[in-house]
Design a protein that fits this description.
Radius of gyration: 24 Å
Strand order of the largest sheet: 1-2-3-4
Order of helices and strands: EEEEHHHHHHEEHHHHHHHH
Strand content: 5-15%
Helix content: 55-70%
Number of strands: 6
Largest sheet: 4 strands, antiparallel
Length: 366
């Protein structure tokens, strides 16, 4: 058994579980299970692949993604925002870039694999007070930006799908309703609508100092009283609404929309072959449709697998290391989706490719 001193009280640990009870002069109170006390439980067989993904593969891929997404943003900005499709792609790339901040959360890696760990498995910051506070604030910053981007990343593809449905099924309405101003307003709304929830989530965690039985003081991140006191409401909102709106709802919406658009495009192509004059009457661009739909399909496939993993595995106070590995694999798929913009935009849209080449040539001339 082990005892941790928390603000003058003692928390009882055993070797394989989270705290059991608080032992003090006060009446004994059950301590709520918190997975942040221990990082990994059970077999350590999957520690190395988890470490490779968590500390090397996903962060490196995220850095690469930020670089190529930066190129995408520059090219889209140079192309101008007169076309609604460029505005949608710009908003999506920006959200993807924010999304990858979660994988760049270096304080979490230190909590997992810090070089001065008292005991393997503790999720602790074991430095001086200033450094511990810096790591905690940095962790909250990366999570704030990353989670905000993740929710927007699930919303923009639905707007893109709806825009393409209007373009191919209701071309007259499309030209009247889908304008740069309306698309800009929709994209801004997708950013703003999720912001209150992300701000509320920033009040879920706090930094708590814990004295180990050997006298060493370490810092952990644990739930705040705000989360404990409002757990039922917050859990219901997260589990039944937020999870659905960032996983299965957009995936199903995008898949259904792509099927409907694919049917319409196939019919239009068939008709155009029979009647060449129909090409002049076509109000939507096949190139733009191809670019936008490919982006949405990559989103749907990666998020469907991600959502399936999230549904099948749970993070709680007895989470085995294999579960963390599966979650990290899901994160890898999420990063692949976020970094796919460069390939999709420049290989499927020759106009954007020409803009990129013009920028590169101008840089060389300078």
């Amino acid at each position: 058994m082990q005892y941790l001193n928390i603000n003058g009280t003692y928390v009882l640990f055993n070797d394989v579980t989270t705290p059991l009870v608080i032992i003090a002069t006060k009446p004994q109170v059950p301590l709520r299970a918190n997975p942040n006390w221990f990082c990994f439980l059970g077999s350590q067989d999957y520690l190395f692949p988890f470490m490779v993904l968590n500390c090397f593969v996903n962060p490196v891929l995220s850095f690469l993604g930020l670089f190529v997404n930066g190129l995408c943003l520059i090219v889209l900005a140079k192309g101008g925002f007169r076309k609604p499709s460029y505005i949608l792609l710009f908003a999506l790339v920006l959200a993807d870039s924010m999304n990858m901040f979660i994988s760049l959360d270096f304080p979490s890696r230190i909590r997992y694999f810090g070089p001065v760990k008292t005991k393997p498995g503790y999720c602790t910051f074991e430095y001086d007070a200033i450094m511990n506070q810096y790591l905690f604030v940095s962790q909250e910053f990366f999570n704030f930006v990353g989670l905000w981007g993740r929710t927007i990343n699930a919303t923009i593809p639905m707007i893109i799908t709806m825009e393409r449905i209007l373009a191919v099924y209701f071309p007259v309405t499309f030209t009247r309703v889908v304008t740069p101003k309306s698309i800009t307003a929709s994209c801004c709304a997708s950013y703003v609508i999720w912001l209150p929830h992300i701000i509320v989530q920033s009040f879920y965690r706090r930094l708590l100092y814990v004295q180990l039985s050997n006298g060493k003081v370490v810092a952990i991140t644990t739930a705040t009283e705000f989360l404990f006191n409002n757990f039922s409401i917050l859990y219901s909102f997260t589990a039944y609404f937020l999870e659905a709106m960032t996983s299965w709802v957009p995936v199903c919406f995008v898949c259904l929309g792509c099927i409907l658009i694919g049917i319409k495009v196939s019919v239009s192509i068939s008709q155009r072959r029979k009647l060449t004059s129909l090409r002049k009457e076509q109000q939507w661009s096949p190139r733009t449709t191809r670019t936008l739909l490919t982006t949405c399909l990559i989103f749907a496939v990666t998020h469907a697998i991600n959502a399936l993993i999230g549904t099948l595995v749970t993070i709680d106070n007895k989470t085995p290391l294999l579960t963390y590995l599966l979650v990290e694999i899901a994160e890898f798929l999420n990063i692949l989706n976020c970094t796919s913009n460069f390939l999709v935009y420049f290989f499927l849209n020759k106009k954007l490719w020409r803009v990129l080449l013009q920028i590169i040539r101008r840089r060389k001339l300078l």
